Each structure stands twice: as structure tokens, then as C-alpha cells.
Amino acid sequence: MAEAHQAVAFQFTVTPDGIDLQLCHEALRQIYLSGLHSWKKRFIRFKNGIMTGVYPGSPTGLFIVLVGYMSSTKYALMDPTLGLTAKLGAHIPISRYMSEESQQLVGGVLVGTGLWVTIIFIMRNALKCLLSWHGWMHARHGQVSWKTRFWMLFVKLFSGRKPMLYSFQNSLPRLPLPPVKDTTRRYLESARPLMDDVEFKRMAALAEDFEKTLGPKLQWYLKLKSWWASNYVSDWWEEYIYLRGRGPIMVNSNYYAMDFLYVFPTSLQAARAGNAIHAIMLYRRKLDRAQIKPLMLQNTIPMCSAQYERMFNSSRIPGVDTDTIQHMNDSKHIVVYHKGRYFKVWMFYDGRLLLPREIEQQMERILADKSEPRAGEETLAALTAGDRVPWANARKSYFSNGKNRQSLDAVEKAAFFVTLDDTEQRFEEHNPVQSLDSYAKSLLHGKCYDRWFDKSFNLIVFKNGTMGLNAEHSWADAPIIGHLWEHVLSMDPIKLGYTERLQWDLPTECQSTIESCLKVAKALADDVDSHIFPFHNFGKGLIKKCKTSPDAFIQIALQLAHFRDKGNFCLTYEASMTRLFREGRTETVRSCTVEDLRVRPLHDEREHEREQNEAGRASTAHLFCLYVVSKYLGVDSPFLKEVLSEPWRLSTSQTPVQQLELFDLVKHPEYVTSGGGFGPVADDGYGVSYIILGENLINFHISSKLSSPETDSHRFGSNIKQAMLDILDLFQLNNIAKK
Question: What is the structure's pLDDT at 615?
């Protein structure tokens, strides 16, 4: 191998005249650059740790406090230590080694530093107290009270200047633990429209019995955890909701993000991949240096940034009973899949990140490679698409040593995974429905073996230059990967070698396991009924004129559409972020409430919005944690068992646009993204994702299962469109929304 010579830093030969050393300067140079890169990252992380640890203080603030304090005490002829140095002198013979002036200087520095630390402590705790108030959430849409204005002013005052990504972590409040009685009341309010009188009376009796008997005992353990842990939900949510699931994560858990809807920067696959990979690596560098601005609601209220930590260099590792997440501090390569082969591509040369055109050349060489995949290699990634137990057993049996171990390490320890897809996908104006549906299905599951579904995310670049993402769900929620994707799309059209092929040796038994997993995955993928459509009739601009929240408007439209589609209401899931709290992820908004029954006569939406904020949040996470405690204690609760076994036949989520400054959709309306989506949660239900773009466009992503006689994604899409128009008619503004 050509690279074997470069791997030897020096050689020596023994001659009659002695030992002749032959140093390889290039190898030593690369070792030096690698060490320099590593130490730079360590220093940056150390510095960022210090800056985050003292925030909202700063070294400049320390200097100002020291100079100000010592100057004032000097001119006032005061002892800056307030007699502390003299007291220490009685016990420690420092006077022998320091003059009185030096003692005053050292004492001033110590007291000034203590004063600086005290100021930081006060500001941080004041900010934590301020952020614990959430009264601003309950105001009517578009209205801000004076109380909220003053509160926001104080939040800005105590937030400091130029925060880094993790600056607010120590100032965020902990997720509050609600009383059991409040949680059961909210649950019953959300369940009332889905039950008849007899069924509701039975459930209310179960809830009352739970409140009086088992509930307080379980709550005591949860309260203990809430005092000890940063967040009483997140670790259990990650483990039991995601990592302990033994079914396929493809379709059932992983989700996708799409490219621009109308703009196609290039039809060259390698060029598009070069730009995208370079932009992603730049984002990783910003993330490593904590230079990404923390997300702030209304440019004031900080949100938790903990989920960013495992975006790169991470992979889900299968286990028999539970999976784990493996995260590396650094990775200098990516892995690229093309036509059944896996390639390890280094991202750095001479200590610098490869430029887009250099990465493009690497991709071109991969595309030009005509080598054939080895037996079983082409469909190898089907192991990550099927059930988790067969994959865990196969990993232990066939990937624990030799070539397979090395190649698997390269995949799992890569910064991220790239697929150079050999199909063409994009939005076509002459065939909008079928083209978008095909595009979504390709991103969601592809061929079931051409994405490594265990990686934190896969970048998929199609043959015609269109691209997208497929992301694993356990390590973080969709807004985190959405933040990265906005960065990539904003850089690609405006701003902006081939290396060793991985070797696999797959025995016949392992190939049989791969085929079995592929069969399970294909059956799941072929059953997905996906429908994506842009809703052009009106957008948030017109909805705001109705004095209502765009999200509430869409949610009530989904309820009306579902009622028309199936003739009934159902348990509805809407994802809601809890990142206002430390290490928060999501909570469930049960958006089908008693007020939603009024969609049949299409009643006042504004009343729905107000009451939804109060009653819709059923504290599903609290009930889930109570259930986990009950399992640890070995006790059964009929109430919790029944509540948590109810199927979510309508699962909904809004994809937020977080970095509005990156896209000027007024001047460039063509740069709208298609958003992203996910698979259905229930076999007879719908999954609906939507993204609100600019003032006049809402993109909907609908999924269901073809095997269910009760669902049809295209039919439901038509019902959503008509429901949006019908609800608008209530406000007598439909003349503004004429096509």
C-alpha cells in the first residue's frame, strides 16, 4: 500500500560504520500537525469552560473590578482586605517575605476577585429566578403586558453581553415537578372529548384512586430525583422512549429534512456534496468552540443548549436489552457510501479543513470508482434498519475483531455519514405530488440499506444534486438538527482525497442476518404512505390578522380534518419544547381538548387558543416518570398502565425556523426549504409535520401506513387544505386569501 511508507516515521540500517537513521520528515510533520490540532482543541475547550463557568462575568469585568476597587481603596487610604491580611499575619509569617505595599496589592487582588465572584453569583441566581417565571406564556397572541416588558428588561440586564453557546446552562431553572393532582386533572381534561360518559367516569375513578394511594409514594421518589438531577425526565426519556425500543428505528424513530423547494444550486452531485460537507464541518468547528449563538426566544429568553453536545462523532450502538449512544470527542474523517461500497474520507490535510473543491474531488473519485462490493457489503446497513436484537447479536458475533471491527469503528466513529445516492429526487412543477412524495420516502428510508440509520445524522446527496438529511432521534430532537441544516442551506448557494475503501469480511451466517433485517425493513418502508404538499392559499401573515396563533390555527384545522377523515376525534400528540429548562427536551401537548369538539360547528378559535395553553399540556412526561418509578418499585398502577398504553393516532410537530436572519424570504422567496417529517406512530394513524415559511406558505408532511384501511395520506391532505380554508371563513377574511 502506498500509504504504508508514510506510516513509518523513521527507518534505520546497521552498517560497519554504525547505525544510519533515515527520518521521514513528512511523517514527523504530520505527527506535529496532528498534535498541534489536538492541543489547540484542548486549549479552546479549557478556555470555553472557564468563560462559561464565570458567565455573565468576563476577564474584562474582573480587570475593571480590580482596578476600580484598588483605586478607590488607595485614594481613600483604606485597607482593601478590611484587616484580613493582618489577621493572617498573626498565624502565617508572610511579613518576612512581603512588604506592606505588596501585602496590600495581593490583598486587594484577593478581595477584588472575591467581589467579582460575588457579583457573578448574584447575577446568575437573579437570572435563574427571573427565568423561573413563565407568566409571559399565557398572554394573548400579539399582546405584551407591562409586567412582561419589565421582566424582559431585567432578563436582558442580568444576561450579560456576548453569550456563548453554553453560557446560560447554569442559569436555567430546573424543570418543575407538578403535583400529582394537577397532572391527573390535566389528563382527564384532555381525555374527556375521547370518551363517553361511562368510560370517562371509570377513568376518573382510577385517577382518584391513584391520587390517594400509589401516586404520593411514586411522587416522593420523583421529588427526590428532581432535587438531585438536573432534569428529572430527560435521562429516563432517552433510555426508555428511545434506546430500549427493540423495533426498527427506521421510519418508527428517525426523521428527515429536505432541501430547498424551488432552488437547485447545481446538478453536479460531487460539487453539491463538497459544499454541504464543508459547511457541516465549519458548523462543527463553531460548535467545538462554542461560537454558535444560543437560541433566544424573542431575542431575550435563553433556551437549553445541552442537546448540541452529541451532534457529531456519535452513533447509536445496538444492545440486546438496550442501546447506548457512543460519542467521541473528535473525529477527523467521514464515511461515504456509494453503490454498495464504504469509503473513509479524511477531512483535514496539513492541519486544516479541506476546502469545498478539495472535498468535491474526493467525491468525484468515489463516483468514478468501478470496484464491486464484496458479498453482503451492499446491503450491510440493513442491519441498522431492522429489529435491534438481531443487529446486536450480529455485531457481537461478526464485528468484534479483524477487518470488520476496524471498518465498523470507522463508520461509528466518523463525524457523520454521507450517502451518494444513485437516484434522482426533487420537486417537479409538472408533477408536484408524486415528486415530493418520492423525495420524502427516499429520505425517510431509501432502499433500507443505503443509510446508516444508527449515525447521529446521514447527509444524502442525490444524483441530480438535490440533498437532504436523515437523523437518529435518541441523541436530540428535530430543532437541533434543523439549526445545523439552516446553516448548511444558507451557505451553499450563496457563500461558498479519495481515500481507503473500508474492507468487510461477511460470512454466510452474517449475510443471512442482513437479509433478514432487510426483509423486515423493506416491509416497513413499502408500507409507508407519504404525502407532502405546499399550502399556498395563505400563511401566518393572514392568520395573525385573525388575532390568533398560527400554530393553534393549524392544530384546530388538523382536528377538523381528522374528524372529516375518520368521523371521530382521537388522542393527539403535539411536540412542545421544554428547553426553557435545563436539559429539557420535549413535553406533550394533548391538543385535542373539549374545546376542539366545537370544530363541528366551527366555534371561536380564540377561545380554543387560550384554553389550550391551560388545559392542553397533560404533563405526559410526569406520568411517564411516575410509571418508571412504579416499575422500579415493582408495583402496578391500572391508571398509569392505561394512560400510557393509549395510541397516538394523530402525531403532530411543527418544524421551527430558528435563524431568521439567514434567509430573507421577502427579497428571495425562492429560497424556501421543504421542511422535514417522520413516520406514523400508530398503525392506523397519521404523522403530520408542518413548517411555517415566511408570511404566505405552510408546508405539510403527512405519513400513514398503506396497510391500514382507515388512513390515506392524500385524502387527509385534502381534508387539511379544506379545513384551513373553512376555519379562515369564520374570521370573514377569506376575500384576502383569494388565489
Answer: 38
